Amino acid sequence: MLEKTYIMVKPDGVKRGLVGEIIRRIEAKGYKIVDLRLMRPNRELVEKHYDVHKDKPFFGELVDFISDSEVVGMVVEGEDVITVLRNMIGDKNPAIAASGTIRGDYANSLTKNIIHGSDSAETAEREISIWF
Q: What angle do the packed helices 81-89 and 19-28 form, to 10 degrees?
């Protein structure tokens, strides 16, 4: 099934020069990047994006981190793109993320874990509307 998803290279991925590698992996898998933006999001935008976590203890730290520097947001399109890219991204905890996944290869922190990807079609639609 053809679908779209939202992918964000977080500030640590941008600062470490991993944007090109992440794009390479997405395109090598056969997916199409239909929109891409380098931006420095304000707190309001980041709080809206992570609204589902607003009552969790890590919310403030996460918002501070994402709004501290530039991110690269992408809309990626393809067959089963949400599931496949979530598998390519790997577990949010880099200590258990499989080698060969983006987080398994590059992340070193639960908060600073390189990349975000929508977890469902509904979430993708919401996140794309927030960022694009």
A: 130
